[in-house]
Amino acid sequence: MIASRFLPRQHLQTLFDQLDALGYRCIGPQVRDGAIVYDRLGDLTALPIGIGAHQTPGRYRLEHQDHQRCFAWANGPQALKPLLFAPHETLWRTERDDAGRLAFTRELQPAQRQAVIGVRACDLAALALQDAHFADARADPSYSRRRHDLLLVGVECGQPADTCFCASTGEGPAISTGTDLTLTELDAGFLVRAGTEVGSALCDALPLRAPSDGELAQAEAEIEQARLSQHRSLPGRNLRESLFANLDHPRWDEVATRCLACGNCVAVCPTCFCSTEREQPSIDGSGSTRVRLWDSCFSAEHSYVHGRLLRPDTRTRYRQWLTHKLGGWHDQYGRSGCVGCGRCIAWCPVGIDLTAEANAICSDASESAQEAP
What does the pLDDT look like over 240-295, one tens digit per residue? Predict the structure, then answer.
């Protein structure tokens, strides 16, 4: 294990200054419209200092707390996904010349070095899944360019929300891999460890000291307490067989009576990547623009194929989302598409709990398997 060093709290700004000097655009958590979101970060004072986030099914509320910590919250509605898989992106442009011939031009945004501060373990796991889908430059050059220029400063999560269940999916709350630099926040400052050569170079430029035994023990105790405090869990890490064996389970009908099919869950999910494409013609007919937009398997047209809807109602759409996320992803990526961040629970307007639905459906499958001769 890489040894940690200690960065006093008053020197955190030095990290931001170093990143700025290296040409990175710093992005970090800050309060916007009653939520903690990622945005351009100018200095230390923009961080949510002394702020916590109370999250329960269908509810998210910020709270002022009596401390000076910057990262004493679980997560906000955003993850890394919007920074890499853009919600709205031009793919190519088409223009017609005077002879009527069409010319196609690929649209690539200028590369920009970005450093994201405060990334959690669940979102690092989600990023690995996004990478598996998008990162091949031949498949998605825009994503690949943005990913190449991304530097990640992770922060281990010591204050999980009521909706978190990353311990049951095996993602956190501790960070094991995926960052250039990892911080563990304590009252007096941060334990710091490098994960890449870039991270090591940053450490060399910071005023670090050796941590005390008490600081190391406190960090370990807080992470362990964060793990033990999570009371939600999925019934297993591979639910493929259980879910596909229960496609006619009555729970699908029951959850459909509550689900609004609004798509909030997939919008905040850090791994969902459904998209649609639109052609936007110019008014004079001289050309058009092809754009890609985020989409949702909860929308009607998402399953529209050759004149018919394959999933015509909320029941079949919710079933598609849950079975694909927790079951079908094993065939595609060798693991579940859920990283236990709990965002879908907190940001569902009616408080539908993915873990409760999965447990209700899969428990019947387990009982049936046990009863079989």
Answer: 999 999 999 999 999 999 999 999 999 999 999 999 999 998 888 888 999 999 99
The total of structural domains in the chain comes to: 2
- 149-170 confidence digits (pLDDT tens): 999 999 999 999 999 999 999 9
Q: Rg (Cα) of the chain, in Å, rounded?
A: 23
Decide which of 228, 259, 279 is a domain's last residue: 228
Sort strands 150-155 and 114-119 into parallel, antiparallel or unpaired.
parallel
Quick count: other Cβ atoms within 10 Å of Cβ 79? 25
Global confidence as pTM = 0.90
Q: Is residue 275 part of a domain?
A: yes
Q: What is the mean pLDDT of the chain?
A: 90
Q: Which of 129, 184, 48 is nearest to 328 (CA)?
A: 129
> d(Cα 133, Cα 69) in Å, to the nearest integer?
35
Distance CA 147, CA 140 (A): 11
Q: How far apart are CA 370 and CA 348, in angstroms?
A: 34
What is the residue range of 45's domain? 5-85+104-228
- Pick the last residue of a domain from 228, 262, 293: 228
Residue at 98 is within a domain: no
C-beta atoms surrounding 115 within 10 Å: 26
Residue 373 has what pLDDT? 38
Residues 79-133 have pLDDT tens digits of 999 999 999 999 989 998 877 788 888 888 777 899 999 999 999 999 999 999 8
